[in-house]
Design brief:
- The chain is an alpha+beta fold and about 525 residues long.
- It has one domain: Cytochrome P450 (Cytochrome p450, Orthogonal Bundle), CATH 1.10.630.10.
- Helix content is about 50%, strand content about 10%.
- The strands form five sheets. It has a five-stranded mixed sheet, with helices on both faces. A three-stranded antiparallel sheet has the order 4-14-11. It has a two-stranded antiparallel ribbon with strand order 5-6.
- A hairpin with a 2-residue loop joins strand 1 and strand 2.
- Helix 8 packs antiparallel against helix 9 and helix 9 runs antiparallel to helix 16.
- The chain binds protoporphyrin IX containing FE.
- The site of protoporphyrin IX containing FE has 23 residues, from helix 15, helix 16 and helix 22.
């Protein structure tokens, strides 16, 4: 009885002390952050309101509403701010910026950092050098046949699912874009066949730490990680404890279990590829570039680092591009005048019976690229503000001095809606990207972030998106399976669209020839 009372008293005492300290820090305000409005009550005292926002809502949309009222800097947590002023892009992410990735990357890292979560600048530069040969445009064009192979497999599936005058079939385009990008990156990166396109499913093998294997769903596992970390990673100091505590909740418990399945997928893929490497197979892929440079000098990476790099490649290398492909198709179906224009451009460039668009032929089609960029502008697959910390001496961000070790973030979703740079920001308007005026938008387009930590996979993303979209539009007509369809949007670590139910028909001009 006394033990129970003592325990309850200790918990209440702990809560009171913690709340007291948070409030004391808030009013003491050593960094001068109280001058910025809180996005919600208590946001200046604790990260809990932002974590709740992240759990329940589209956080960048909420911040956008607040910034649109003419507030350039909003406090999102005791030590974090969201900035909508476009000058902040250069100050926070630019090559000359002294800001670095912040604690949210550190708490989510595994035993070894990978290219995307390493914070230390020299260590990042070392990794980027190793990986840049793998991601170089030269390799990329050599690997185009791997992408073309995936297009052929997708076409084989879509041909079977085409609607006809007699028989209408609705398919969800969204998962197919994911099967496509996962199959493609596994082949480019590891010469591994996932066969998701052939199977129409993301079932795959995961390896437990003890080496035993089990079957999991790639997308379910990866998205579970994305959902859980998009909430909990905003509490840096408490992340590990919250991860344990959150397992009491059935929702989070399920996510963390699925996340174990996710950890096992790159572990399995790395082990399989390693066996082939050990057996002396010479394969032309990303893994080979991880092992040694072009002259054959070994990189001698630790096993944990190799698995970490494969993890980020399979994650960042598939999810973002798949979302982007589904969004572009959604926008084009929704805007038939843009669809007609881009299709005319593609048809003009391709032979009538060409099924897979060669990259060389379609990569410079201006309207096709403009459609992709406009879709990325409106719904950037990484939409939330990427968190950076100011250097210890502080830094000027958008004209304001921000004290050292403060988290600052500019959301692509918000920046891309600045009406001065992007007039009528909610309008899908590919024309804005054309000509000289279009080129001037470059510094404000941050779908791939910017500076030294900008996306290394951008070339792969454009290769896959351009070839896929051109091939699809050349072969099929698309329409929403439900007239007036609008997708739901979930913002986890990525901004997902729920589904994209469409009907596909072989274009008459082409099918007549068969
Ligand atoms: C449309 C597709 C893509 C979009 C919108 C995108 C977006 C981004 C963004 C915003 C970042 C910065 C992340 C941060 O600061 O936390 C990033 C980094 C990165 N992306 Fe992508 N990405 C795409 C495709 C890819 C692909 C296909 C790959 C790999 C094959 C890839 C691999 C990476 C890696 C490794 C980084 C970390 C780079 C570094 O810190 O040096 N991405 N990407």
């Amino acid at each position: 009885m006394y033990g129970f009372l003592f325990g309850a008293f200790a918990i209440v005492f702990g809560i009171v002390i913690t709340l007291g300290k948070w409030s004391f820090d808030y009013f003491k305000d050593p960094k001068g952050l109280r001058r910025y409005p809180n996005f919600a009550p208590f946001a200046g005292i604790t990260n809990i309101p932002y974590m709740l926002l992240s759990h329940k809502n589209f956080r960048s949309h909420r911040l956008y509403e607040l910034h649109s009222r003419g507030v350039p800097i909003i406090r999102t947590g005791p030590n974090s701010i969201s900035v909508s002023d476009m000058r902040a892009i250069k100050d926070v992410y630019g090559h000359a910026s002294k800001c670095t990735k912040d604690g949210s990357y550190v708490v989510q890292a595994g035993t070894h950092y990978h290219l995307a979560d390493v914070v230390d600048k020299p260590e990042h530069a070392r990794k980027r050098k190793v990986l840049s040969s793998a991601y170089a445009i030269k390799n990329l064009e050599d690997w185009e046949f791997k992408v073309a192979d995936k297009i052929e497999r997708l076409i084989a599936q879509f041909d079977k699912r085409c609607s006809t005058k007699e028989h209408e079939i609705a398919i969800d385009y969204r998962p197919w874009t994911n099967f496509f990008t996962i199959d493609a990156i596994a082949d480019i990166g590891l010469t591994h066949r996932m066969n998701f396109l052939d199977n129409g499913s993301a079932k795959t093998t995961s390896m437990r730490p003890d080496g035993s294997l089990h079957e999991v769903d790639f997308r379910d596992c990866l998205y579970a990680n994305s959902k859980a970390t998009s909430v909990l990673s905003y509490s840096y100091d408490w992340f590990q404890r919250l991860t344990k505590i959150s397992k009491i909740d059935p929702y989070f418990n399920k996510l963390w279990k699925l996340n174990e399945g996710w950890d096992g997928i790159p572990r399995y893929l790395a082990a399989e590829r390693w066996k082939r490497y050990q057996a002396g197979e010479k394969l032309d892929d990303f893994f080979e570039a991880l092992m040694h440079d072009r002259s054959g000098a070994e990189h001698n990476l630790e096993w944990g680092e190799i698995v970490a790099e494969i993890t980020i490649m399979m994650n960042a290398g598939s999810t973002t591009t798949a979302i982007s492909m589904a969004n572009a198709m959604y926008q084009l179906i929704k805007h038939p005048e843009c669809m007609a224009k881009v299709r005319a451009e593609v048809d003009e460039a391709l032979d009538e019976d060409e099924a897979v668009a060669p990259y060389e032929t379609v990569k410079h089609l201006p309207y096709l690229r403009a459609c992709l960029d406009e879709s990325l502008r409106l719904f950037p697959p990484i939409s939330h503000g990427l968190t950076r910390t100011t250097p210890p001496e502080g830094s000027v961000v958008a004209g304001d001095f921000i004290a050292g070790d403060t988290t600052v973030a500019v959301s692509a979703f918000i920046a891309h809606r600045d009406p001065v740079v992007f007039p009528e920001p909610e309008r899908f308007d590919p024309e804005r990207w054309l000509g000289e005026e279009g080129k001037e938008l470059g510094p404000y387009f941050i779908a791939f972030s910017a500076g030294a930590r900008g996306c290394i996979g951008r070339n792969i993303a454009y290769l896959e998106q351009t070839v896929l979209l051109a091939s699809m539009l050349h072969r099929y007509d698309f329409e929403f399976a439900r007239p007036g369809f609008e997708p739901g949007r979930y913002e986890w670590q990525n901004l997902h669209l729920t589904e994209l139910p469409v009907m596909i028909r072989r274009r008459e001009r082409l099918s007549e020839k068969l």
